[in-house]
């Protein structure tokens, strides 16, 4: 790494990327556990078995999310002290709200769901599943509000010392960017949850293990997954893209690999950015489609990257471009898989289609890849700013923490997370091997 700044950035990127593997799954599963519990409340015993099974996976994943999330909070002070000093009055509010309101709601009712079914009864157990879902999604909202403020800062004033002071918490919580980003983030989490549920269910069905319970939760996963995959493109993805174009036009141009301004811009399907020539190599485009998607008509100017000052460009245009296209490409595949699965489910053929069950089972890692690519798009696109248009990343890191110290602790995180990964894999595979019906509640 060339500098201390690069080391700080890489450490934060590594720890947050690893951490988000777990919350995206718990946020997605929380909704489906609630849906299954609602079915169970109406007398469906297989749905209740599914709830008990998935609560165990949820709990282990939740613990991993908590353990890997704690270092993120500390890094604001250890690695990004100047950012915290300048912006802590604003971001500290939403981070505190996430911990105080959402986390305790989530953890408290998870305990009730895991250990209190016989004690509280089915109706109260259902209420606990509702509150778990709300707590999980509320937690996500406060975190997204923090990130959205960094993307599109609102509700603050700058004092005489150059410190940003919170002026309106309502403005931060109702930030238009936050609303759009939250919707897209939650849809992405539901996609992860639905594919995980469908994948593990397909595994049971291929092994002819716990067939009735597996069919129940695979059906739920496919129906919810179909809605979520479509919603990831329209409306949530479309709204988010239009906000990026409006407020971060240079980011929009980099994401699309659009180097030169034109009023008939094509949508790039495949191509490789050449930063020296400032053009795409071997592009495959759909003519005029980017203009149509941007303006809603066949002719309309879409500004190219070369028309912006280079000091405003994202730091790594090729990586941003590829991350965005991986997200979009996988999202398209997800729509196809869930649409075909839903069609076969409706026809009653899914359970006998071993090929499609194999597809569902092997699709497990790809929503995690897509969500990671989506967050890479958001964070790479915001660069070179920590707070867009106000505070540069180069001005926010802790200068007194040397590059060597950062790399040393990074190696520590990598070692610790490797051990945690082995432990998580061991525990979850044992839960899956035991299958539904092994819970004594």
What key attributes describe this structure?
mainly alpha, 15 helices, 441 residues
Please give a structural write-up.
By secondary structure, the protein is mainly α. Helix content is 72%, strand content 6%. The chain has helices at residues 4-20, 23-41, 45-78, 81-115, 117-151, 169-173, 176-207, 211-233, 236-247, 249-256, 289-295, 317-347, 354-362, 366-382, 403-434, and strands at residues 156-158, 164-166, 267-274, 279-286, 385-387, 391-392. It has a two-stranded antiparallel ribbon with strand order 1-2. It has a two-stranded antiparallel ribbon with strand order 3-4. The chain has a two-stranded antiparallel ribbon with strand order 5-6. α7 packs across α13 and α7 (176-207) runs antiparallel to α14. The longest helix has 35 residues, at 81-115. The model has no long low-confidence stretch (mean pLDDT 93).
Blueprint of the fold:
Elements: H1 4-20, H2 23-41, H3 45-78, H4 81-115, H5 117-151, E1 156-158, E2 164-166, H6 169-173, H7 176-207, H8 211-233, H9 236-247, H10 249-256, E3 267-274, E4 279-286, H11 289-295, H12 317-347, H13 354-362, H14 366-382, E5 385-387, E6 391-392, H15 403-434
Antiparallel strand pairs: 1-2, 3-4, 5-6
Helix pairs in contact: 1-3, 1-15, 2-3, 2-5, 2-7, 3-4, 3-8, 3-15, 4-5, 5-7, 7-8, 7-9, 7-13, 7-14, 8-12, 9-10, 12-14
């Amino acid at each position: 790494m060339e500098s201390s700044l690069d080391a700080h950035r890489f450490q934060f990127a590594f720890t947050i990327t690893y951490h988000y593997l777990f919350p995206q799954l718990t946020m997605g599963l929380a909704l489906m556990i609630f849906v299954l519990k609602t079915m169970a409340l109406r007398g469906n015993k297989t749905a209740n078995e599914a709830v008990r099974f998935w609560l165990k996976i949820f709990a282990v994943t939740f613990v991993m999310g908590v353990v890997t999330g704690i270092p993120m909070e500390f890094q604001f002070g250890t690695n990004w002290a100047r950012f915290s000093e300048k912006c802590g009055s604003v971001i500290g509010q939403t981070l505190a709200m996430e911990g105080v309101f959402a986390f305790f709601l989530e953890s408290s009712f998870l305990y009730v769901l895991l250990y209190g079914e016989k004690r509280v009864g089915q109706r109260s157990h259902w209420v606990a599943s509702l509150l778990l879902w709300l707590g999980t999604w509320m937690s996500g909202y406060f975190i997204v509000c923090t990130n959205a403020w960094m993307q599109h800062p609102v509700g603050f004033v700058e004092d005489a010392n150059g410190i940003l002071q919170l002026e309106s918490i309502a403005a931060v919580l109702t930030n238009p960017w936050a609303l759009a980003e939250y919707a897209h983030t939650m849809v992405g989490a539901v996609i992860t949850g639905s594919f995980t549920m469908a994948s593990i269910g397909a595994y049971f069905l291929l092994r002819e293990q716990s067939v009735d319970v597996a069919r129940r939760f695979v059906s739920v996963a496919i129906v919810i997954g179909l809605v979520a995959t479509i919603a990831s493109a329209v409306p949530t993805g479309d709204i988010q893209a239009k906000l990026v174009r409006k407020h971060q036009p240079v980011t929009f141009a980099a994401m699309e690999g659009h180097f030169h301004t034109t009023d008939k811009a094509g949508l790039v399907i495949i191509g490789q950015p050449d930063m020296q020539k400032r053009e795409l190599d071997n592009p495959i485009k759909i003519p005029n489609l980017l203009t149509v998607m941007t303006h809603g008509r066949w002719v309309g100017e879409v500004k190219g990257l070369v028309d912006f000052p280079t000091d405003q460009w994202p730091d790594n245009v090729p990586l941003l471009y590829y991350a965005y296209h991986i997200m979009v490409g996988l999202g398209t595949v997800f729509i196809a898989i869930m649409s075909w699965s839903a069609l076969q489910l409706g026809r009653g053929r899914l359970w006998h289609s071993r090929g499609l069950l194999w597809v569902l089972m092997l699709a497990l890692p790809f929503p995690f890849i897509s969500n990671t690519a989506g967050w890479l798009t958001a964070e790479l696109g915001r660069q070179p700013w920590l707070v867009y248009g106000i505070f540069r990343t180069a001005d926010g890191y802790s200068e007194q923490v040397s590059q060597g110290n950062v790399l040393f602790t990074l190696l520590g995180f990598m070692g610790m997370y490797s051990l945690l990964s082995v432990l998580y894999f061991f525990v979850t595979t044992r839960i899956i091997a035991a299958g539904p019906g092994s819970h004594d509640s």
